[in-house]
Amino acid sequence: MKNILKTGWVIMVLGTVVSCTDLEETVYDQLTTDNFFKTQEDVVAAFAPAYSGYRSLVSNHQGSWYWLALNTVDETVTPVRGSAWFDGGIHTRLYLHDWTNDENTIRQTWRQMYNGVNTCNRLIYQFENAEFEVPDLDAVIAELKVARAFWYYLLIDYFGNVPIVTEFDLPEGFLPETSSRAEVFDFIVTELRENMDLLSNEVNADTYGRWNRWNARHLLARMYLNAEVWSGEPMWEECKTLCEEIMGADKYHLEANYKAPFMADNENSGEITFAIPFDEVYTAGNNRFHVHMWTLHGLSRETFNAQTGFWGGISATPSFISSYDPDDLRIADSWLSGPQYASDGTPLYCAGWRSEDAGKPLDYTREIDDLTDAGEHQGYRLFKYEIEDGVMAAMNNDFVFFRYADIYFMLAECLYRQGDAESATVLINEVRSRAFETPEPLTAGMLDDDRFLDEYAWEFCQEGHRRQQLIRFGQFTTKAWSFHSPSESFRTLFPIPREEMLANPNLKPNPGYN
Q: Which of 107, 274, 375, 410 fits a disulfide with 497 by CB distance 3.0 to 4.6 angstroms?
């Protein structure tokens, strides 16, 4: 986000620090005398943490929603490269679906999510107990409840059966009990239904990065889309109705350029329905968005005149790159490939992370030799988000969590599930037409589960939703891809972390995990 000064709201969110120390343990009660508002200024300043906590979802490769989303699916992989990216074998275990309930990466993700829930509970309590009249209190509480519902949306997706905690003034040492996934589903849906119409109807700079009436509907539509997996009953018609309502409101539009929602100044994109704001200055340190550092080779800093180093880890799987139509413009818009050069045109060469690669051209290839012994140059690199010339450790790009193209695809999936493949292809073709200089329309006869999943992947790769798609189509644990064989069916859920269960005996393990 380059133009960060255009709203005071964004400044407050960007300037709010997400504390790492909060993740040392999962705390459900933190009531102190500091938890009460006394002035209107207190209210304005305190509202931002409901949103700033979302940055933790994408800012840490050692434990975050985004890292788990990227490293457990068929699109991307973090191979070991020489002595780099072994990290105790965690990235390999994630990719092979061989994780345990002792993984720090999973535990930190759990704690981030419940830290977000606790923050929302605290703010609701503070607003309801402020020592003065809070303007539009009902709308404020509604927005906080939707913000909390989003955390539970993430929890039900990753962990399934989790505690529902909605109070802040709890007895010291309170330990919540596990609710079933179906109960969590009903809770989230009820929260969204009861509160979304109390939110702002506006989609503008003042509501950017916040929940409004329309992106809350997007979130609810996602709940309905996954209802069969999460609650046991399909809700295609409900999802379809919401998607049509969002499209009929004319609040968002598809960009003509596929790359537009991912540029450094993407806060101006009309395709984004919900984003997490980032900035190279205001969200540096542990709060930064730095996927460029995760993926690019260290010498690529000379390509972009970067003011930081790169770590050269995560890249595309060979099987996924091979799935593309060679004429698909989204390949170059999403992945950095081929021989690499400094900004002055000087060729770049491998540094020798493996001795046999020393002096070879730094050529990002589709092929990766080995999951545990890959060349530093191997694998297409993540390039969906624009990397600016002179980029710093923190990127300016806001992270796109939901965008309008997803509404098209969700509606298309509902129609497909209801037997109307013809209408589904019309919607998919409208989105994919910008991906080809001469588009070849998808036909109903071409559309089956495998093709639908491919269309999802080509359009939404690197956005963190692939795991959900694979699970919904029954392929997360049954499909094979580069270096990855089918896994046990219980892997559709992550384990409740062992350390959390030891701290709270009321938690129940997910099936398949000891």
A: 107
CA distances from 56 to 52, 248, 403 (A): 8, 33, 20
Residue type, 475: Q
Three-state SS string across 215-234, please?
HHHHHHHHHHHCHHHHHCCC
Look up tokens 């490939």; give the residue. 337
Measured at the alpha carbon of residue 234, what is the angle toward residues 228 and 235, in degrees to the nearest 5?
125
Neighbours of 48 (CB within 10 A): 18
- CATH number assigned to the domain comprising residue 167: 1.25.40.390
State how far Cα 60 lies from the chain centre. Answer: 12
Question: Structural domain of residue 202, as residue ranges?
Answer: 4-233+494-503
* Number of domains observed in the structure of the chain: 1
28 belongs to a structural domain: yes
Q: Which residues contact 308 (CB under 8 A, 6 or more apart)?
A: 293, 301, 391, 392, 393
Start-to-end CA distance of the chain, whole Å, equals 44
How far is 195 from 216, CA to CA, in rounded Å? Answer: 9
* Separation between Cα atoms, residue 10 and residue 275, nearest integer Å: 12
**Cα separation of 252 and 203, whole Å?**
8
DSSP code, position 341:
B
468-498 tens-digit pLDDT: 999 999 999 999 999 999 999 999 999 999 9
In whole angstroms, give the CA distance from residue 266 to residue 277: 10
Name the DSSP letter for residue 63: S
For residue 365, what pLDDT is reported? 99
Q: Does position 19 have pLDDT exceeding 70, yes or no? A: no
Q: How many CB atoms lie within 10 A of CB 393?
A: 16
Q: With beta carbons less than 8 A apart as the criterion, state whether 447 and 416 touch.
A: yes
Euclidean distance between CA atoms 275 and 209, whole angstroms: 5
